[in-house]
Amino acid sequence: MAESIKVGMADLKVATKPDDVLITLGLGSCIGIALYDPTIKLGGLAHIMLPDSTRIKNNSNIAKFADTGIAELYRLMIKGGASKMRMIAKIAGGARMFEMSGNNAMGAVGDNNAAASKEALKKLGIRLVAEDTGLNYGRTVELHCDTGEYWIRSVGKPLKKI
C-alpha cells in the first residue's frame, strides 16, 4: 500500500516502496531535490535550506545544505539499489520570497540555492531533467515513485507536473 512520506525542512528521505509518495511542504527560497531511478522506481527527496556547508559553523545537519545534502541523498539512493547511470534529478523552489533593493544577500538565497543544487548534481554526474525554480512564490512538492512525476503545488496556481 502506498505511503505518504513527509520530508521536513533540512531533511532527506528515500522511499521504501515503488508506490510511495515523498512530500515536502513550504519551499520558499529552499530547494526540493528529487532523485529518481525509473527502472526500479526508487525515489529520494531532500529539502535543502542553504547552498554551502563550508560557510556555516556548527553545520552538523548535512541535509540543510546543497553540497552535503545532495551527496547524502545520492549515497542513500545507491545504497537502495539505484544506478548512477539511470538516476535523474528534478528540482523546485529557490524563490525570491522577499524583495530587496540592491544586491542584498537575503534576496539571493533562492538563486544561490538553485545554482548550488545544480552544481552538486553536476559534480555527481546526475542529469537534471526538469526544474521549477525562481519567481516569488512558495511551493509544495510531491515525488510520485510509481511514475517519477514531480508535482508542484502553489497557492493560486494550477498543479504543475514535471
Structure, described:
This protein is an alpha+beta fold and 162 residues long. Helix content is 19%, strand content 33%. The protein contains two helices and ten strands, in the order βββββαβαββββ. The strands form two sheets. It has a five-stranded mixed beta sheet with strand order 1-3-8-9-10, with no helix packed on it. A hairpin with a 4-residue loop joins strand 4 and strand 5. Helix 1 packs parallel to helix 2. It is globular, with a radius of gyration of 15 Å. The two termini are 24 Å apart.
Topology diagram in text:
Blueprint: E1 4-6, E2 11-14, E3 21-27, E4 31-37, E5 42-48, H1 66-79, E6 88-93, H2 109-124, E7 127-133, E8 139-144, E9 150-153, E10 160-161
Parallel strand pairs: 1-3, 6-7
Antiparallel strand pairs: 2-5, 3-8, 4-5, 4-6, 8-9, 9-10
Q: Summary?
A:
With about 160 residues, this protein is α+β, with helices and mostly antiparallel strands. The chain is globular.
Q: Give the helix proportion (percent range).
A: 10-25%
Gap from first CA to last CA? 24 Å
For the biggest sheet, the summary is: 5 strands, mixed
**Global mean pLDDT:** 93
Shape: globular
The stretches of 5 or more residues where confidence is low (pLDDT under 50) are none
Strand order of the largest sheet: 1-3-8-9-10
Strand content: 25-35%
SS content category? alpha+beta
